Amino acid sequence: xxxxxxxxxxxxxxxxxxxxxxxxxxxxxxxxxxxxxxxxxxxxxxxxxxxxxxxxxx
Length: 58
Ligand code: SF4
Ligand code: SF4
Fold this sequence. Notes:
By secondary structure, the chain is α+β, with helices and mostly antiparallel strands. It has helices at 15-19, 44-48; strands at residues 2-5, 25-28, 31-34, 54-57.
């Protein structure tokens, strides 16, 4: 079980932040910050990312 991001690929578009039902993502200047305690690994953020910077494995 894992949630991963490549913050070098990330465009800082905020799409993943707006769709996360658990509010587990936050957009900072350095990239996306993920709260593993809130995340349910639903995979929605992975699907909306235009550059496939997020990888979710159940
Ligand atoms: S996998 Fe689901 S719960 Fe976890 S950060 Fe992405 S959208 Fe949020
Ligand atoms: S959707 Fe992808 S490109 Fe946009 S902020 Fe999230 S990780 Fe970055």
